[in-house]
Amino acid sequence: MLEAMCSAPLGDDVFGDDPTVTRLEELAAESLGKEAAIFVPSGTMGNSIAVGTHCSPGDEVIFESLCHTYNFECAGAARLWGVQAVSIAGDRGVIPLDSIAAAIRPEDVHMARTKLVILEQTSNIAGGCILPLDYLEAVASLCRERGLRLHIDGARIFNASVASGVEVSSFAACADSVMFCLSKGLGAPAGSVLAGTAETIAEARRLRKLLGGGLRQAGVLAACGIYALGHNIERLGEDHRRAAELAVKLKELNLAGLRISSPDTNMVFLGWDGEDPDRYTEFSNRLRSEGLLVVGLSGRGVRIVFHKDADDDAAVRAAGILSRNLTELFS
Q: Fewer C-beta neighbours within 10 Å, C or N terminus of the chain?
């Protein structure tokens, strides 16, 4: 990947003449089965641009209550685009269809216009869960019937594809726009891609510039994305295997009160009962002091994520650190 970065032919992407960025966008659009794509510095920017392209000020967006765009993107829909948010609790990232239908506003001069539904694939805080293809197809059908757009925050959509055996283009076909991250399981140092119709992406270029995402010799980063798409997709299965193996080892501890997720993909979540809302943060800091980098989410659990730089030896060490600290915690 570093060699690809160093040897990439460059231009000025603000003027649309960086050949490496253009090639990445072509590859991304082709892999997702979309007309066009645009390289953006981050997944947050890609999701924000999607809201801006699909909505006008005063519109309303339906979010799954745990999704990243609703929880961790600084209320960008409201702050940047004047869009109102409605969050609906889902199960493993899945909002019931009847709940989506019930939340769609009728045509009424007093009300916001419901314009967009946003779902996350895989659902991060739900535990890296895969949204099934038949569910996404059903949501897409509902959105078409009611005149709504559907955006998929596909930060880990390639994880969902590898784990489920469903082509990533089949997931993407359900949505009007899809964002995916190059900098997560695919292993690039930075960058994401937003894909959709040619018209949507043309407007996305204007909004990217507005948000400060117009980069000059961006090919140095796009080259990493090209390498990732060519070399780092199938290996995602290794991360899934390690996550599953860790979950089994921790369950074998038989610690009463400890909740351990059964991972769909590359994430394992731990949780337990208690009154202290900061207990997960404190436990994650304890692990970090021993060199195991995990995230403690207040009120939600401890998130353990496997990625391309965590090999089998690292997985064994992680299991040892976790087993010892959990046994001490529950003793």
A: C
Give, in order, the Cα–Cα distances in Å from 106 to each of 60, 143, 270.
Answer: 12, 14, 41
DSSP, collapsed to helix, strand or coil, labels residue 124 as: coil
- 124 and 9 in one domain? yes
176: nearest Cα among 116, 132, 135: 116
> Which run of H or of E encompasses 325?
helix 312-329
- Taking the model in full, what pTM does it have? 0.96
Last residue of a domain, one of 196, 231, 266: 231
Number of structural domains the chain divides into = 2
Same domain, yes or no: 225 and 243:
no
Whole-number CA gyration radius for the chain? 20
**Are 141 and 213 within one domain?**
yes
What pLDDT score was predicted for residue 300?
Answer: 87
Which DSSP state fits 200? H
- The DSSP line for 203-237 is HHHHHHHHTT---SSTHHHHHHHHHHHHHSSTTHH
pLDDT in the model for residue 274: 80
What is the CATH classification number for the domain harbouring 165? 3.40.640.10
Assign 3-class secondary structure to 85-120. Answer: EEEECCECCECCHHHHHHHCCCCCCCCCEEEEEEEE
Residue 195's SS3 state is: strand
**pLDDT single digits (tens) 265-323:** 999 999 998 867 789 999 999 999 999 999 998 888 999 999 999 999 999 999 999 99
In degrees, to the nearest 5, what angle opens at C-alpha 14 toward C-alphas 53 and 57? 20
Report how far residue 183's alpha carbon sits from residue 200's, in angstroms, rounded to the nearest whole number: 23
Q: Render 128-183 in DSSP notation, one character per residue.
A: SBPPPHHHHHHHHHHHHHHT-EEEEE-TTHHHHHHHH---HHHHHTT-SEEEEESS
Tokens at 322, concatenated? 């976790």
